[in-house]
Write a structure and sequence with these properties.
With 467 residues, the protein is an alpha/beta fold. 40% of the residues lie in helices and 13% in strands. The strands form three sheets. An eight-stranded parallel barrel has the order 1-2-3-4-5-7-9-10, surrounded by five helices. It has a two-stranded parallel ribbon with strand order 6-8. Strands 11-12 form a two-stranded antiparallel ribbon. The structure holds 6-O-phosphono-beta-D-glucopyranose.
Length: 467
């Protein structure tokens, strides 16, 4: 193995609604995430008075962050990805004045990180928004939400300008087509045109946040955040190749807009042929020209597509329906494990944009068990992470510029898709089950010591034993 670059950031990634808990503490408003007790794949449900949802407490990071940050520091983290819960700052979303208690919480969090020598990487919106903006405005379908988001972004850039120098706009912005309530606050029954219009508003909001960040914190960098969806053709049939190209474009066009500043020609054709008429003003076009500084993305799996509709229709997935690749094995949750795909994707993104990349999510969701001696032997997780990091190293050798790597869920947290605790990603175990039972105490897993050594050795301890 070659050493990773000195400047490479190492750490983990989290999201407010999956770790913080304290769902109604210190003036926080209700978010879309608070209304999805069964996760992103569940429907929106009204809260039942007196009934707790698992994310209401999550892993209680809101109160336990000093202890958790100390554990991250013990592993040698140089970076932690967190998100700000927009509704802690603007409880309904449309207020002029921010909620001081919410702002103060993130001040304490960033101060703690600074003391621990950990650089914060902050997502402005990770799969949640104030529910007030859905109830009173119809979510991102309403153009005025752009302005409320911009006001929120400017507020936090101003407040944390001396504490946060790395920002991301919307988490997995390209997921909205598949999870519209989570992504853009629209009902699952919305038609394509409505969803694309809402997505357009979010893309404009993202660009305006970029402009504001550059203006308010000139020495900061701001990136987008894409679900790194890589789709292979099921065969080398030219029609399968074309199908894969089109499928990949349906994911990547968000990145094209955010990195290049305009809708690509293939999307204009798509809108034309699908009779989707989006309102894009001249002002929007100017706003979109404020492009991101770097590309960030999540990477968990790959899948295949075929031009044969009967094969495609039978594909079963979790959030996405992709055809399983016969050459790959899946995780317990059916996510197909493909370390080489990460190298391919990184090369593709670099070739396409020539902007630095940041892998801000990657990891294995698995059930862990505690041995009689109290240890947690999560070798499967070590194997997964090792093999992916080896491919990151390969991509760096290929000439790809990479800013860092934050594995998903460095401490067990509530999973996004189905709100489970049993789907664990962490180096640190949290004693809590799917019913919310447990002491919330933290236990170091085997992978904790493994990752600490990877960071200490700057990757030299990784093993090329994967494929
Ligand atoms: C990403 C999300 O899609 O995948 C995270 O940004 C999420 O919020 C992660 O937790 C893993 O998915 P899941 O469903 O296993 O939690």
């Amino acid at each position: 193995m070659k050493e990773f670059p000195q400047s490479f950031l190492w750490g983990g990634a989290t999201a407010a609604n999956q770790i913080e808990g304290a769902w109604s503490t210190d003036g926080k408003g209700v978010t879309t995430a608070d209304l999805q007790p069964h996760g992103v794949m569940g429907k929106m449900e009204a809260r039942i008075p007196g009934k707790e949802n698992i994310k209401d407490t999550a892993i209680d990071f809101y109160h336990r962050y000093p202890e958790d940050i100390a554990l991250f520091a013990e592993m040698g983290f140089t970076c932690l990805r967190v998100s700000i819960a927009w509704a802690r700052i603007f409880p309904l979303g449309d207020e002029r004045e921010p909620n001081e208690s919410g702002l103060a919480f993130y001040d304490r969090l960033f101060d703690e990180l600074s003391t621990a020598g950990i650089t914060p990487l902050v997502t402005l919106s990770h799969y949640e928004m104030p529910y007030g903006l859905v109830e009173n405005y119809g979510g991102w379908a309403n153009r005025s939400v752009i302005g409320y988001f911009e006001h929120y972004a400017k507020t936090v850039f101003t407040r944390y300008q001396h504490k946060v120098k790395l920002w991301l706009t919307f988490n997995e912005i390209n997921m909205s087509l598949h999870a519209p309530f989570t992504g853009v606050g629209l009902s699952e029954n919305s038609n394509k045109g409505e969803v694309y219009q809402a997505i357009h508003h979010q893309l404009v909001a993202s660009a305006r946040a970029v402009r504001a960040c550059h203006h308010i914190v000139p020495d900061a960098k701001i990136g987008n955040m894409l679900l790194g969806g890589l789709v292979y053709p099921l065969s080398c049939h030219p029609q399968d190749m074309l199908q894969a190209l089109q499928e990949n474009r349906s994911w990547i066009f968000f990145g094209d807009v955010q990195a290049r500043g305009a809708y690509p020609g293939y999307m204009q054709r798509f809108f034309r042929e699908q009779a989707i008429n989006i309102e894009i003003t001249d002002h929007d076009k100017q706003d979109l020209q404020h492009t991101i500084d770097f590309i960030s993305f999540s990477y968990y799996m790959t899948g295949c597509v075929s031009h044969d509709e009967t094969i495609n229709k039978n594909a079963q997935g979790n959030i996405l329906n992709m055809i399983p690749n016969p050459n790959l094995k899946g995780s317990e949750w059916g996510w197909q494990i493909d370390p080489t795909g990460l190298r391919i994707l990184m090369n593709q993104l670099w070739d396409r944009y020539q902007k630095p990349l940041f892998i801000v999510e990657n990891g294995l969701g698995a059930r862990d068990s505690i041995e009689p001696d109290g240890t947690i032997q999560d070798n499967y997780r070590i194997q997964y992470l090792n093999d992916h990091l080896v491919q990151v190293s390969e991509a760096i050798e290929d000439g790809v510029e990479v800013m860092g790597y934050t594995s998903w869920g460095p401490i067990d947290l509530v999973s996004a898709s189905h709100s489970q605790m049993s789907k664990r990603y962490g180096f640190i175990y949290v004693d809590r089950d799917d019913n919310g039972l447990g002491t919330l105490s933290r236990i170091r897993k085997q992978s904790f010591y493994w990752y600490a050594e990877v960071i200490r050795s700057r990757g030299l301890s990784l093993k090329r034993n994967c494929e």
